Each structure stands twice: as structure tokens, then as C-alpha cells.
Backbone:
């Protein structure tokens, strides 16, 4: 058998520049016709339509893609947060010569606007003055339709996180139904998923060379619609790759941690042996059709499983899914960027500030990343509730140390208001920099959803020395007083390197460090693909020891998720007891939010575990789902066990669970027998009434983007604060 290798890709910057490069670099990409005229352009080549305010910073997608296309010689304009109620705003620059690039922004528009309780958020961090309601629900669909109305002949390319995570039939939490691929609903010509640098550059140059958009069917990381099959591909049915039903039991490291499946599956490390004769690059797997996954939860879970198995750029095959009379065809994921390419992307001529049109308006999302530096992309953690892997991939893409240090100096010298403190060196996680599989061949062939669950893979390099070196060099730069780490630390990796923990705790923690054990009990954790709480305890022991040695009073702030699939009421009781024993009191909490394409969302919708082969057997255990509003409120209440307003609800739950031993006035009790005046049932009734009004407005208003909804609270992830005698409680903070 041929040894697997990671496919190569042409140099991202290796193409000859488009002729318009003679116009040079724009101070800011133009956001109006007047700005375009001032640059001497008679037209634009590409118009990027985005739901975010335009900030010329590499953490904002429209700036990164715009500057990259500019570096290739194209004239790029940004249409930021246009009025979507008519097509007039979309005619601002005239018809672009090549295409419209449409994105909802840095967040899915539904996640951006609604909480996990389907309440309307009061603000939008990506809008000036945090003003809510400046983008439509399902922004990709609405913006694409307006672009089509404005100039019907111009190709439309959709991308970004919203398009990426809705590229096939997917469960949508806000409408509580399975929706079609956003490519079909938006009627776009092409969808790019994942980090889109390679795709968008290829698309721009090929359209500029005169190719038709309908002929761009061989670009990795894209999706397109067809009415007829591709004749050069050998099609196999997904049930041949991963047959729903009973199979012979084989050893599986994930099965050892799970009680939710009647028959273990083959290990993800075992390669699939069907149809080996067909070249992988000419094989396409047919997923169950949209209509089938709507009607059958087994097929939905099966399709989700196959999609996640075909996520490694080294061995992924193309996928196709029928939607009515059309196929949605997905090419394999894009090839990760090299360090050299990453360096050039992040060292493009960004101004690193919001566009001058916003004057002194406050932009909360910009304030968070103003003095931060991205050092890596991707995550191999594979947490089931997170979509980072589905978007950025599990292979870590690293910048070089020298490039990162140059950017720190650029921030120091050019960003207004810099006081000598770098707010973050990180990415999706803080400490996966330069961590990778020890064997390129194994990396290219692996199908495991996580490199760290149920334990750290023996093939994973966990050496934190390059990151320690980077931290030391960064804080030694002239003019740098402090380098903080704000990205989430993967503590199960950190404990493999006590030297890293020492470095982190001694030099880079600003009083408290946020980490995410998410739960304490085995049931929820095995459905999250998270390590046991014992790993957290080991990290905390190192954290406390090195804090004491450094002479610093520092605290861990752990985050928890309520109502995650696999969580029972009994699990929340044990978590509440753990919180009380450890002196943590959460100020604000949040229930699990089923985001598109996440494996935990599949569990939520189907009550099935997509990490296992699906069985139609009636005795196959279902994943417990805390789905009702009452159960979700109860699970959140257990995280705030100390709040008197929650005590009546918790007393009833403890009595129902046979845990009356936890009701009393002693230190070993969870909930007291007494009720302070003005708390409890009356306050709970007010909350329920307010929630009902908001829910009624949401249900009857639907996803209408033209009418703002009622304001509602914006709860944060559970962030318990250490309760200390004689000292104030540390406020819980959003992630």
C-alpha cells in the first residue's frame, strides 16, 4: 500500500500579480465610491461584503482577505454592514469586474444575535458603539440575494465562518429544523470553507484569466452545485464507507470511555479499506440526501460522522449531497499554509485600526484584540461542542518566531494607545504552537477526531520549548513591559511540560487565568471529548505551586457548560458540589448552544453519538439531552447554587432525585432550608414571564431581519470566582 503523504500546494504568493498592482497599496481598502475615486480607480475587481465593521487588522476576515487579494494586484473594496433592506447599497461601487465576496463576518450571524436561550442580544461587539441590529439574520443568504439583485451577472462567492459551517445540510438551533446547505439557499456560485486564502487567490486569478465561475470545480476547500455528476469521479455511497448498523466489535480507545453505544466501532486509526482501487483524488462519497437526513436521525448522524472523518487534508475525499434536483459537491479541505506563507499573510500592510469612517466610535471586538498577536491557527483538541476544527482544521499552522517578534515591534511602534502590554500571544488555543504529529505519514493518514482524547496520542509531539523561547524573546523586546496570555490554555497538554506552566504562571498571568474543564463528571466529559477533572487538579497543583514560588497571588477561573448533551441532572448535582467544595461561585452562566456542524449539535438533534457507527437497533442507548427549557434552566441553576433565587427550583430537583441529604443549613449541605425574603419563587416567576415574552416575540417574529427584536440578557459562559473570606469575589468573565 502506498504510504500516505500530505498533498502539496503551490506557493500562496507564487503567482504573477494582476495588472492593477500598479495602483499600489491603499491606506485603507475603500468603503465608499468617493474613496475609490480618490484612489484613481475606475472600477473594483472584487467587492467584499461583510456583516462586521471594517477594521484593518488581520484578526478581521475582511481585512485579511482584502489585503491578500490586494497583494496579488487586485482592486478590493469593502462594503461593511450595508443596509440590506434593498439592493441600492450593494450598487455603491458599481459591478465588480470579478466577483462579490460575501461573508457574515467573524461570527455566525445567528450566534452573534441570539443567546443559547434564543433571547436577542443587547449588543454586537463587531459594530460601532456595540449597536445591535446592524446585520440581518442569516447574513450570508440575505447579502448574496441583494448582490444578485444589484448585478445579476456578477459571480458571488460566499465564505467565512457562517458559510463554512453551513456548507451541507445542517441542524439549525434557532429554527429547530434541518436546513439546506447555505450554498443552495443563497444561490451563490461558489462557497469557500475553512481559512480561504488558497481558494480565494486561485478563484480571483482564474476569473481574471477569463475562466467561467461554473468551471471552477477543482479547487480544494470549495463547494458548488451541479445537476449532473462529475464524469471523472468514481462515486461510492457513504453507507459503504461507514455502514449504519451492527458491526463486529474491535478495540476502540473512544469506546472505553463511552456508555452510549451498544457496539464498539473500529478505531479511527484503522484505515477504511473499501474501494482501495479507486484513486482517492478521484473518489467522491455520496452522503444521504437533504430530504433523507431531514426525515431520518440515523442518517443525519451518519452523514455528520462521515463529514468529520473526511476532514484531514491528507486523506479526505470529496463529498456530494443531493438537495432536490441538484447536488452540492464539496472538494477536500484546503492544504494548510506553511510558516512562510503564514508570515507573509500576517505581515501585509494592515493599519491595525478601524477605518477612519468610524471616527471615535467604540468597537468592542477591536478593543479585545488591539494589542494581541496571532501565532498559530487550527486545533487538534476536537471538542465536540466546538467548530474550530471544522473551520480551521486540526493541523496547527504556525508563524515563525521572527515574524511574531516583528509584529510585536510593529504594534509597539504604530498602534495608538500602546502602553507596553501585549494582551495575548495565541490563537484558538494558547499552547499548541509548533505541536504536531511526530510522523508526517501518520498525520496524513489519521482519522481520529482528537489528538488528546481519551488520552494524548503517543504520536503527538508535546514539546513546549519553542513556545517558551517565544515568550522569553517577546518580553525581552525593548518597550515591552508585559506579555499576557489570554487565549485558552489546553491544560492537559500543559501538564506534560511543567517548565511551560512555570513560565506561564511566573511571567504571563495577570492575576487570574481562564481555563475550561467544562464539567467534572464522566458522562458529559466523554460526550465533549474532554479530559477528566483529575487533569485539571494536576494543572491546578502546578499553577498554585509556581504562583507561590513567584510570590504572586493568582487564581484559576474555570469555565463550565450547562445542559451539554450527555448531561443528566445527577451530573449537575455533582458539579455543584464540586464548585462548593472548591469555593467557586459563578456570576454568570450559559447553557450549551448547538452551533452548526459541531458533533455535539448532532447529538442534540438526533440523541445519537456521531463518534460511533449508528445502529437502528431499538436497544441502542440514546444520548441524554437536556433539551427542555425547564431542564436547561435547572442545569444553569446548579452552576449558580449559591443564588437564593435558584434555591426553590434546586430544592424540588434534589427531592425528586432523592438527594434530600443536600438540603440543610450545615456546611456539608448544598441548599439551605430557609429562603431569604424577596428571593425565590417571586423572582423566578418574574424571570419566567420575561423569558416567555421574549420567546413569544422570537417565535412569532421568526428570522425576519427587517425588524429588531426585544432586548434580552447576554449571559456569559460559567466563570466561577473564588470565594475568599475578607476579600471581594473575582467577577466572572466571558471567554
Residues:
Amino acid at each position: 500500500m502506498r504510504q500516505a503523504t500530505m498533498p502539496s500546494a503551490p506557493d500562496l504568493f507564487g503567482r504573477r500579480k494582476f495588472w492593477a498592482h500598479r495602483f499600489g497599496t491603499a491606506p485603507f481598502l475603500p468603503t465608499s465610491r468617493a474613496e475609490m475615486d480618490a484612489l484613481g480607480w475606475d472600477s473594483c475587481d472584487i467587492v467584499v461584503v461583510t456583516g462586521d465593521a471594517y477594521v484593518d487588522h488581520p484578526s478581521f476576515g475582511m481585512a485579511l482577505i482584502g489585503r491578500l487579494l490586494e497583494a496579488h494586484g487586485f482592486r478590493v473594496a469593502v462594503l461593511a454592514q450595508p443596509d440590506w433592506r434593498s439592493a441600492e447599497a450593494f450598487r455603491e461601487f458599481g459591478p465588480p469586474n470579478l466577483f462579490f465576496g460575501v461573508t457574515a463576518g467573524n461570527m455566525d450571524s445567528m450566534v452573534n444575535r441570539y443567546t443559547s436561550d434564543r433571547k436577542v442580544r443587547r449588543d454586537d461587539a463587531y459594530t460601532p458603539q456595540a449597536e445591535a441590529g446592524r446585520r440581518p439574520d442569516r447574513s450570508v443568504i440575505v447579502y448574496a440575494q441583494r448582490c444578485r439583485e444589484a448585478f445579476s451577472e456578477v459571480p458571488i462567492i460566499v465564505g467565512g465562518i457562517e458559510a463554512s459551517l453551513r456548507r451541507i445540510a445542517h441542524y439549525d438551533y434557532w429554527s429547530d429544523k434541518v436546513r439546506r446547505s447555505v450554498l443552495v439557499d443563497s444561490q451563490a456560485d461558489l462557497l469557500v470553507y475553512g481559512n480561504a486564502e488558497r481558494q480565494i487567490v486561485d478563484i480571483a486569478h482564474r476569473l481574471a484569466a477569463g475562466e467561467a465561475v461554473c468551471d471552477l470545480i477543482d479547487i480544494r476547500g470549495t463547494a458548488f452545485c451541479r445537476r449532473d455528476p462529475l464524469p471523472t469521479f468514481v462515486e461510492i455511497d457513504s453507507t459503504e464507507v461507514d455502514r449504519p448498523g451492527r458491526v463486529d466489535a474491535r478495540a476502540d480507545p473512544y469506546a472505553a470511555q463511552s456508555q452510549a453505544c451498544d457496539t464498539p466501532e473500529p478505531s479511527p486509526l484503522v484505515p477504511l479499506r473499501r474501494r482501495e482501487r479507486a484513486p482517492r483524488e478521484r473518489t467522491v462519497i455520496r452522503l444521504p440526501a437533504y430530504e433523507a437526513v431531514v426525515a431520518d436521525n440515523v442518517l443525519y448522524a451518519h452523514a455528520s460522522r462521515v463529514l468529520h472523518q473526511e476532514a484531514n487534508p491528507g486523506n479526505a475525499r470529496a463529498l456530494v449531497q443531493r438537495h432536490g434536483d441538484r447536488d452540492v459537491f464539496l472538494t477536500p479541505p484546503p492544504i494548510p499554509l506553511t510558516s512562510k506563507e503564514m508570515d507573509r499573510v500576517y505581515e501585509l500592510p494592515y493599519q491595525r485600526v478601524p477605518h477612519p469612517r468610524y471616527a471615535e466610535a467604540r468597537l468592542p471586538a477591536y478593543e479585545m484584540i488591539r494589542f494581541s498577536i496571532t501565532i498559530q491557527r487550527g486545533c487538534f483538541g476536537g471538542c465536540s461542542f466546538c467548530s474550530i476544527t471544522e473551520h480551521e482544521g486540526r493541523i496547527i499552522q504556525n508563524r515563525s518566531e521572527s515574524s511574531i517578534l516583528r509584529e510585536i515591534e510593529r504594534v509597539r511602534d504604530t498602534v495608538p494607545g500602546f502602553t507596553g502590554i501585549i494582551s495575548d500571544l495565541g490563537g484558538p488555543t494558547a499552547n499548541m504552537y509548533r505541536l504536531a504529529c511526530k510522523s508526517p505519514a501518520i498525520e496524513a493518514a489519521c482519522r481520529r477526531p482528537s489528538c488528546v482524547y481519551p488520552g494524548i496520542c503517543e504520536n503527538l509531539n508535546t514539546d513546549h520549548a519553542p513556545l517558551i523561547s517565544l515568550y522569553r524573546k517577546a518580553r525581552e523586546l525593548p518597550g515591552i513591559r508585559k506579555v499576557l496570555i489570554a487565549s485558552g490554555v489546553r491544560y492537559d497538554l500543559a501538564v506534560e511540560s511543567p517548565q511551560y506552566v512555570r513560565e506561564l504562571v511566573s511571567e504571563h498571568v495577570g492575576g487570574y487565568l481562564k481555563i475550561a474543564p467544562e464539567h467534572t463528571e464522566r458522562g458529559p466529559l466523554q460526550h465533549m471529548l474532554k479530559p477528566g477533572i483529575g487533569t485539571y487538579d494536576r494543572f491546578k497543583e502546578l499553577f498554585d505551586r509556581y504562583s507561590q514560588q513567584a510570590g504572586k497571588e493568582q487564581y484559576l477561573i474555570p469555565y463550565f457548560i450547562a445542559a451539554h448533551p450527555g448531561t443528566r441532572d445527577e451530573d449537575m448535582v455533582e458539579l455543584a458540589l464540586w464548585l462548593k467544595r472548591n469555593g467557586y461561585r459563578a456570576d454568570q452562566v450559559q447553557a450549551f448552544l448547538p452551533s452548526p456542524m459541531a458533533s455535539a449539535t448532532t447529538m442534540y438533534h438526533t440523541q445519537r453519538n456521531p463518534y460511533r457507527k449508528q445502529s437502528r437497533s431499538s436497544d441502542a442507548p440514546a444520548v441524554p439531552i437536556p433539551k427542555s427549557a425547564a431542564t436547561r434552566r435547572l442545569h444553569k441553576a446548579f452552576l449558580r447554587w449559591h443564588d437564593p433565587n435558584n434555591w426553590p427550583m434546586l430544592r424540588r430537583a434534589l427531592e425528586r432525585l432523592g438527594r434530600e441529604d443536600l438540603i440543610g443549613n450545615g456546611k456539608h449541605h448544598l441548599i439551605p432550608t430557609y429562603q431569604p425574603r424577596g428571593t425565590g419563587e417571586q423572582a423566578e416567576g418574574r424571570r419566567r414571564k420575561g423569558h416567555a415574552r421574549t420567546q413569544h416575540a422570537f417565535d412569532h417574529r421568526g428570522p425576519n431581519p427587517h425588524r429588531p427584536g426585544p432586548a434580552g440578557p447576554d449571559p456569559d459562559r460559567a466563570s466561577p470566582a473564588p470565594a475568599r473570606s475578607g476579600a471581594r469575589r473575582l467577577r466572572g468573565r466571558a471567554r
The longest strand covers residues 512-518. Residues 553-735 form one domain. The two ends are 46 Å apart (CA to CA). The chain has 25 helices and 22 strands.
